[in-house]
């Protein structure tokens, strides 16, 4: 039986403030939970409607009812289990050869999709501006389909970071160099801007070059592609060379 | 003032059965509604909280209250206007040189995203299996961001269609030819399968070849890419040549 206090704490973890206060975040569903065990993330406990399925002895597992699961789950259709995990207290990190840099991505679904893309393309690290949506947000965690366990995600002051990195900073916008002719530098940061406003002017100032996906459709009314879709198409092209 | 009957009819248009019964579908938001006027779609009437903004005399516009808009809108945060449109009664169509073929796509967001992608890449026609989600579904219409007005969407018996088309039918799966080495035929149908199950066996039988996006990440646990993301990356690559 979960106490009312426990339920209240777990329910509060959809807010960054409370995730930081308790140093905890939630991961839902056995499939993603199992990937935690191959990662640096530490699991505090698992609450499951079917503990036998998980078959782990190294982590406390509490049997809960469907009704309790409904109370603590952030999903419309709750899955089998919820893992309560500790935030990863990252101290030091170093640049990787190919990185994504996110300048104010706000939508949890977009961040989750971008993390999943990074994992697909073997990109090990994503650098985020401090105002990028928190990746411990339950919607982000679920949208990554477990990829957050394999991609290192760092929040930092972008202007400071971009000024000192040795990677070549390449922006993405609507009138940059055609991705089909662009020659990828060996060490690259690909910068993706906010959904509505793109990259910030102070970020753009620090970029030697921007690239764009050419639009083949003739209508001027066609909306620009969603940021995560654009990221996928650009990565697909960068990795072709 | 909208009558209770009108409200009931409009509310029923989230279901295919009622869209077909009344021969109507809804488009929400002035931005997308304006694109209807440059298309073949016929608008029956517009219900708007701010009719002056639309500035049209060729279509009946009814002034409605915010409260009435809330009742008829399918959006969480309703926009300014709702256009009531006639379904496009398509009779004949002919193959285009580059087409997408959808084999049982179920998620409205995926179909909407794929239509938007087609528009970006100038693909004029999408052929759907009869069990593909209806593109008049309000979630599809909104996810296309207006692109449904520029891409012709056809529902047909895929086995029959794929057997007789002169385009080369190219499937997409997890172990096909690498998209980076694949040579695009001049006339191509790119077939995308259902979210969970991929293409149907009876569809696959009719394909001379499948193509795949190579996974650069090393983990075997990485989930395969979402179908609309895969479509974007493949199209990005096909159009590079």
From TrEMBL, chains A, B:
<dbReference type="GO" id="GO:0032259">
    <property type="term" value="P:methylation"/>
</dbReference>
<dbReference type="InterPro" id="IPR053888">
    <property type="entry name" value="MRM3-like_sub_bind"/>
</dbReference>
<dbReference type="GO" id="GO:0003723">
    <property type="term" value="F:RNA binding"/>
</dbReference>
<dbReference type="Pfam" id="PF00588">
    <property type="entry name" value="SpoU_methylase"/>
</dbReference>
<keyword id="KW-0808">Transferase</keyword>
<dbReference type="InterPro" id="IPR001537">
    <property type="entry name" value="SpoU_MeTrfase"/>
</dbReference>
<dbReference type="Pfam" id="PF22435">
    <property type="entry name" value="MRM3-like_sub_bind"/>
</dbReference>
<dbReference type="InterPro" id="IPR029026">
    <property type="entry name" value="tRNA_m1G_MTases_N"/>
</dbReference>
<dbReference type="GO" id="GO:0006396">
    <property type="term" value="P:RNA processing"/>
</dbReference>
<dbReference type="InterPro" id="IPR029064">
    <property type="entry name" value="Ribosomal_eL30-like_sf"/>
</dbReference>
<feature type="domain" description="tRNA/rRNA methyltransferase SpoU type">
    <location>
        <begin position="98"/>
        <end position="235"/>
    </location>
</feature>
<dbReference type="InterPro" id="IPR029028">
    <property type="entry name" value="Alpha/beta_knot_MTases"/>
</dbReference>
<feature type="domain" description="MRM3-like substrate binding">
    <location>
        <begin position="6"/>
        <end position="83"/>
    </location>
</feature>
<protein>
    <submittedName>
        <fullName>RNA methyltransferase</fullName>
    </submittedName>
</protein>
<dbReference type="InterPro" id="IPR051259">
    <property type="entry name" value="rRNA_Methyltransferase"/>
</dbReference>
<comment type="similarity">
    <text>Belongs to the class IV-like SAM-binding methyltransferase superfamily. RNA methyltransferase TrmH family.</text>
</comment>
<dbReference type="GO" id="GO:0008173">
    <property type="term" value="F:RNA methyltransferase activity"/>
</dbReference>
<keyword id="KW-0489">Methyltransferase</keyword>
